[in-house]
Specification:
This protein is mostly beta strands. It is 7% helix and 34% strand.
């Protein structure tokens, strides 16, 4: 049995001004080498999202600035999928827990797309609109998608930097559930101003970006995400743009970190959920 780890990255530059190439990398457990995967991916691909098919760990999806790509053989070869809008960068991917042929993709600029045939064709869910509370130097983006595995029509989209949207009907309609996040963002210890026009960007970023978790902790939501409170203090072990996935053939019962988060967000049926979600899973 072979365990493989996949990591996606954007391009980065070290202090010595050396530029490193992003993309998707693979490591076999027990090996100390990272192999950059090409096999059909664009040479300049920046991979910000990775999703492994829950029933077949050889099938891998990668989100890039050129749309989504799919590999049928564990990353050896890749094929561009039929994304309708070529100017959208894919930042997040999520499977419908009932049917892995149904796949959602979150993008920048902020939008969510749905595929019902394993990524062969995609349809934009036009009802999703970013609230537009914050003006930034980059387009608002859907950095996390979480689907409740018990009520799979309930979808959460975390926006950087603009709060959280919730769909109760599989993406047909969306509601803004960020009211309390906005209130939290007004607290002095949650304020930050990095690349926006307001000091309130910090808390809205925290719900969608693990790298933004600070000593204040990630906010948590009660019920279906309509009310929020400050979360327990913890710090993310990662920085920068990175998505990682681990796959072990033969293991089919796996739940991603966003799904674990959504599992406790069953409308009015549970207590709290952590909107920041992790970036690793086993398939």
């Amino acid at each position: 049995m072979t365990t493989r780890i996949y990591a996606g990255a954007a391009h980065w530059t070290t202090e010595g001004r050396t530029r490193h190439t992003g993309g998707i990398y693979r490591q076999t457990a027990g090996d100390d080498r990272w192999e950059r995967l090409r096999g059909g991916l664009p040479e300049d691909a920046e991979v910000r999202a990775i999703a492994i098919h829950p029933r077949d760990p050889r099938v891998i999806y990668a989100g890039t600035q050129h749309g989504p790509y799919k590999s049928p053989d564990g990353g050896d070869t890749w094929k561009s999928l039929g994304f309708p809008d070529t100017d959208m960068a894919v930042w997040s991917l999520a499977f419908d827990p009932r049917n892995p042929d149904v796949l959602y993709a979150g993008t920048a600029p902020a939008a969510v797309y749905r595929s019902a045939d394993g990524g062969g064709t995609w349809r934009r869910l036009d009802a999703l609109k970013a609230p537009g509370r914050v003006k930034m130097s980059f387009p608002c983006r859907v950095t996390r998608l979480a689907i409740d595995p018990t009520y799979p029509d309930e979808i959460y989209a975390a926006l950087e930097v603009d709060g959280v949207l919730r769909s109760p009907d599989g993406g047909a309609t969306w509601e803004d559930v960020s009211r309390d996040l906005v209130k939290l963002a007004e607290r002095p210890h949650l304020k930050s101003r990095i690349v926006s026009d307001t000091e309130d960007e910090g808390c809205r970023a925290r719900c969608s970006s693990p790298s933004a978790w600070g000593s204040s902790g990630a906010p948590t939501a009660a019920g279906p995400g309509r009310t929020w409170r400050s979360g327990a203090s913890r710090r993310s072990p990662t920085r920068g743009t990175c998505a990682s996935r681990r796959t072990t053939p033969g293991h089919s019962s796996r739940v991603s970190a966003p799904q674990r988060a959504a599992r406790t967000a069953r409308s009015t049926r549970a207590t709290t959920w952590d909107g920041a979600g992790g970036a690793s899973t086993t398939a």
